[in-house]
Amino acid sequence: MQVETTRFGPLEFASGQLYELTEGLLGFPLLKRFILIGNEADGGPFRWLQSLEEPALAFVVIDPDWLAPGYRSELPRAALEAAGLDRPEEGTVLALVTIPENPQEMTANLKGPLLFNSKTRQGLQLVLDEERHSLRCPILSALARR
Amino acid sequence: MVGDHVRVVVVEVKGRQVRLGVEAPGDTKIYRGEIFERIQEENRRASQVPADALSKVSSLWTRIRSEGAGDAG
Q1: N or C: which end of chain B has fewer CB within 10 A?
Q2: What ipTM was reported for this prediction?
Q3: Mean pLDDT value across chain B
Q4: Chain A residues near residue B51 by CB distance under 8 angstroms
Q5: Mean pLDDT for chain A?
Q6: Is A113 within 8 Å of A126 (Cβ atoms)?
Q7: Among residues 16-35 of chain B, which lie with CB inside 8 Å of chain A?
Q8: Nearest beta carbon to residue A66 from set B31, B69, B73
Q9: Burial A123-146 (b: 16+ CB within 10 A, else e)
Protein backbone atom coordinates (compact mmCIF):
# COMPACT_ATOMS: atom_id res chain seq x y z
CA MET A 1 0.00 0.00 0.00
CA GLN A 2 1.10 3.54 -0.57
CA VAL A 3 0.15 6.92 0.84
CA GLU A 4 1.17 10.43 -0.16
CA THR A 5 2.60 12.39 2.77
CA THR A 6 3.91 15.91 3.12
CA ARG A 7 6.92 15.02 5.24
CA PHE A 8 8.01 11.72 3.72
CA GLY A 9 6.65 11.99 0.20
CA PRO A 10 5.05 8.82 -1.21
CA LEU A 11 5.31 6.22 1.51
CA GLU A 12 5.09 2.45 1.11
CA PHE A 13 3.64 0.68 4.10
CA ALA A 14 2.54 -2.78 5.18
CA SER A 15 -0.74 -3.65 6.90
CA GLY A 16 1.31 -4.45 10.02
CA GLN A 17 2.10 -0.75 10.38
CA LEU A 18 -1.56 0.33 10.46
CA TYR A 19 -3.08 1.56 13.72
CA GLU A 20 -6.58 2.88 14.28
CA LEU A 21 -7.96 5.13 17.01
CA THR A 22 -11.61 4.12 16.85
CA GLU A 23 -12.77 7.43 18.38
CA GLY A 24 -10.01 9.57 16.92
CA LEU A 25 -7.54 11.69 18.78
CA LEU A 26 -8.92 13.92 21.55
CA GLY A 27 -9.84 17.20 19.92
CA PHE A 28 -9.27 15.66 16.47
CA PRO A 29 -12.11 13.13 16.17
CA LEU A 30 -11.55 12.69 12.44
CA LEU A 31 -7.95 11.55 12.85
CA LYS A 32 -8.34 7.82 13.19
CA ARG A 33 -6.00 5.92 10.92
CA PHE A 34 -2.24 6.09 11.25
CA ILE A 35 0.85 4.21 10.22
CA LEU A 36 3.71 3.72 12.64
CA ILE A 37 7.07 4.35 11.07
CA GLY A 38 10.26 3.16 12.71
CA ASN A 39 13.41 5.22 12.71
CA GLU A 40 15.90 2.42 12.32
CA ALA A 41 18.71 4.72 11.24
CA ASP A 42 19.75 5.54 14.80
CA GLY A 43 18.18 2.73 16.82
CA GLY A 44 16.66 5.39 19.06
CA PRO A 45 13.34 5.38 20.89
CA PHE A 46 11.54 7.83 18.60
CA ARG A 47 9.11 6.80 15.90
CA TRP A 48 6.65 8.57 13.65
CA LEU A 49 2.89 8.24 13.62
CA GLN A 50 1.76 9.42 10.20
CA SER A 51 -1.91 10.27 9.69
CA LEU A 52 -3.60 8.63 6.73
CA GLU A 53 -6.41 11.19 6.74
CA GLU A 54 -4.18 14.27 6.88
CA PRO A 55 -1.03 14.01 4.73
CA ALA A 56 0.65 16.95 6.50
CA LEU A 57 0.25 15.47 9.96
CA ALA A 58 2.88 13.21 11.50
CA PHE A 59 3.48 12.97 15.23
CA VAL A 60 6.75 12.00 16.84
CA VAL A 61 6.01 9.26 19.37
CA ILE A 62 7.91 7.34 22.04
CA ASP A 63 7.15 4.25 24.12
CA PRO A 64 6.54 5.71 27.61
CA ASP A 65 8.47 2.82 29.19
CA TRP A 66 11.63 4.60 27.98
CA LEU A 67 10.77 7.53 30.23
CA ALA A 68 8.87 5.95 33.11
CA PRO A 69 9.85 2.30 33.56
CA GLY A 70 6.82 0.15 34.34
CA TYR A 71 4.41 2.64 32.77
CA ARG A 72 2.61 0.12 30.58
CA SER A 73 2.34 -2.56 33.25
CA GLU A 74 0.75 -0.03 35.62
CA LEU A 75 -2.00 1.13 33.27
CA PRO A 76 -5.41 1.01 34.98
CA ARG A 77 -7.60 -2.02 34.43
CA ALA A 78 -10.34 0.09 32.83
CA ALA A 79 -7.87 1.36 30.22
CA LEU A 80 -6.89 -2.19 29.25
CA GLU A 81 -10.54 -3.19 29.00
CA ALA A 82 -11.30 -0.21 26.79
CA ALA A 83 -8.71 -1.51 24.33
CA GLY A 84 -9.96 -5.09 24.66
CA LEU A 85 -6.83 -6.28 26.46
CA ASP A 86 -6.49 -8.87 29.18
CA ARG A 87 -2.88 -8.06 29.96
CA PRO A 88 -0.76 -4.91 29.43
CA GLU A 89 1.82 -6.89 27.42
CA GLU A 90 -0.79 -7.38 24.70
CA GLY A 91 -0.89 -3.66 24.04
CA THR A 92 1.20 -1.08 22.24
CA VAL A 93 1.58 2.20 24.11
CA LEU A 94 2.76 5.41 22.50
CA ALA A 95 3.19 8.87 23.99
CA LEU A 96 2.90 11.89 21.72
CA VAL A 97 6.02 14.05 21.72
CA THR A 98 5.90 17.85 21.66
CA ILE A 99 8.98 19.47 20.13
CA PRO A 100 9.33 23.19 20.86
CA GLU A 101 11.72 25.54 19.10
CA ASN A 102 14.56 24.26 21.26
CA PRO A 103 14.34 20.48 20.73
CA GLN A 104 16.30 19.90 23.93
CA GLU A 105 13.12 20.91 25.74
CA MET A 106 10.95 18.31 24.03
CA THR A 107 8.38 16.60 26.21
CA ALA A 108 6.15 13.54 26.10
CA ASN A 109 2.49 13.50 27.07
CA LEU A 110 2.19 10.73 29.67
CA LYS A 111 -1.31 11.81 30.76
CA GLY A 112 -2.86 11.10 27.37
CA PRO A 113 -1.05 8.10 25.87
CA LEU A 114 -2.32 6.09 22.94
CA LEU A 115 -3.09 2.49 23.79
CA PHE A 116 -3.57 -0.03 20.98
CA ASN A 117 -4.48 -3.67 21.02
CA SER A 118 -1.41 -5.17 19.32
CA LYS A 119 -3.52 -7.88 17.73
CA THR A 120 -6.42 -5.86 16.31
CA ARG A 121 -4.30 -2.66 16.03
CA GLN A 122 -7.28 -0.69 17.27
CA GLY A 123 -7.09 1.57 20.27
CA LEU A 124 -7.82 4.88 21.91
CA GLN A 125 -6.25 7.87 23.55
CA LEU A 126 -6.39 7.41 27.31
CA VAL A 127 -7.00 10.11 29.88
CA LEU A 128 -4.89 9.29 32.93
CA ASP A 129 -5.93 11.78 35.56
CA GLU A 130 -3.16 10.93 38.00
CA GLU A 131 -0.67 13.32 39.53
CA ARG A 132 2.35 11.13 38.85
CA HIS A 133 1.86 11.23 35.10
CA SER A 134 3.11 14.40 33.50
CA LEU A 135 1.43 16.16 30.60
CA ARG A 136 4.89 17.39 29.65
CA CYS A 137 7.48 14.89 30.78
CA PRO A 138 10.96 16.23 29.89
CA ILE A 139 12.39 13.59 27.56
CA LEU A 140 16.11 14.23 27.55
CA SER A 141 16.57 14.20 31.30
CA ALA A 142 14.44 11.04 31.57
CA LEU A 143 16.48 9.29 28.86
CA ALA A 144 19.76 10.38 30.46
CA ARG A 145 18.66 8.79 33.74
CA ARG A 146 18.27 5.38 32.16
CA MET B 1 -29.52 14.05 36.57
CA VAL B 2 -27.53 14.13 33.32
CA GLY B 3 -29.43 12.06 30.77
CA ASP B 4 -31.17 8.98 32.18
CA HIS B 5 -28.30 7.26 33.92
CA VAL B 6 -25.92 9.83 35.37
CA ARG B 7 -26.53 11.52 38.72
CA VAL B 8 -24.46 14.31 40.23
CA VAL B 9 -24.68 14.50 44.03
CA VAL B 10 -23.20 16.82 46.65
CA VAL B 11 -21.05 14.57 48.82
CA GLU B 12 -19.83 17.10 51.35
CA VAL B 13 -19.94 20.83 52.07
CA LYS B 14 -16.98 22.01 54.12
CA GLY B 15 -16.59 25.76 54.51
CA ARG B 16 -16.25 27.11 50.98
CA GLN B 17 -15.47 23.72 49.44
CA VAL B 18 -18.06 21.45 47.90
CA ARG B 19 -17.27 17.84 46.99
CA LEU B 20 -19.35 16.49 44.16
CA GLY B 21 -19.88 12.85 43.36
CA VAL B 22 -20.90 11.41 40.00
CA GLU B 23 -22.92 8.22 39.89
CA ALA B 24 -22.89 6.56 36.47
CA PRO B 25 -22.96 3.12 34.86
CA GLY B 26 -19.64 1.27 34.98
CA ASP B 27 -18.74 1.83 31.35
CA THR B 28 -19.17 5.60 31.48
CA LYS B 29 -15.99 7.64 31.08
CA ILE B 30 -15.87 10.47 33.61
CA TYR B 31 -13.14 13.10 33.51
CA ARG B 32 -12.71 16.55 34.86
CA GLY B 33 -13.24 18.84 31.86
CA GLU B 34 -9.95 20.55 32.63
CA ILE B 35 -7.74 17.47 32.08
CA PHE B 36 -9.59 16.71 28.87
CA GLU B 37 -8.92 20.20 27.55
CA ARG B 38 -5.25 20.09 28.55
CA ILE B 39 -4.73 16.85 26.63
CA GLN B 40 -6.50 18.29 23.59
CA GLU B 41 -4.26 21.35 23.73
CA GLU B 42 -1.15 19.17 24.10
CA ASN B 43 -2.29 17.12 21.07
CA ARG B 44 -2.49 20.35 19.13
CA ARG B 45 1.01 21.36 20.22
CA ALA B 46 2.39 17.90 19.39
CA SER B 47 0.94 18.20 15.89
CA GLN B 48 3.24 21.17 15.18
CA VAL B 49 6.40 19.20 14.49
CA PRO B 50 9.28 21.33 13.14
CA ALA B 51 10.42 20.35 9.65
CA ASP B 52 13.91 19.37 10.77
CA ALA B 53 12.71 17.50 13.88
CA LEU B 54 13.92 14.12 12.72
CA SER B 55 17.54 15.10 12.31
CA LYS B 56 17.55 17.13 15.53
CA VAL B 57 15.99 14.36 17.58
CA SER B 58 18.34 11.84 16.01
CA SER B 59 21.43 13.83 16.87
CA LEU B 60 20.24 14.41 20.44
CA TRP B 61 19.71 10.68 20.81
CA THR B 62 23.14 9.88 19.42
CA ARG B 63 24.67 12.29 21.91
CA ILE B 64 22.83 10.79 24.88
CA ARG B 65 23.90 7.33 23.83
CA SER B 66 27.54 8.31 23.33
CA GLU B 67 27.54 9.81 26.82
CA GLY B 68 26.98 6.24 27.98
CA ALA B 69 23.68 6.75 29.74
CA GLY B 70 21.33 5.30 27.20
CA ASP B 71 22.74 1.95 26.14
CA ALA B 72 19.59 0.05 27.13
CA GLY B 73 16.75 -0.76 24.75
Answers
A1: N
A2: 0.93
A3: 80
A4: 7
A5: 93
A6: yes
A7: 29, 31-32, 35
A8: B73
A9: bbbbbbeeeebebbbebbebbeee
Chain B positions in Cβ-Cβ contact with residue A143 (cut-off 8 Å): 61, 64, 69-70
Q: Comparing B17 with B48, which gets the higher pLDDT?
A: B48
The DSSP code sequence of A75-90 is --HHHHHHTT-SSGGG
Residue B46 dihedral angles phi and psi, to the nearest 5°: -65, -25
Chain A residues lying within 8 Å of B50, measured CB to CB: 99, 101, 103
Matching CATH number, A2-144, of 3.30.310.50, 2.40.37.20, 2.30.30.40, 2.30.290.10: 2.30.290.10
Nearest Cα neighbor of B9 from B21, B25, B27 is: B21
CB A90 within 8 A of CB A123: no
Tell me how far apart the alpha carbons of residues B5 and B12 are, in angstroms, rounded to a whole number: 22
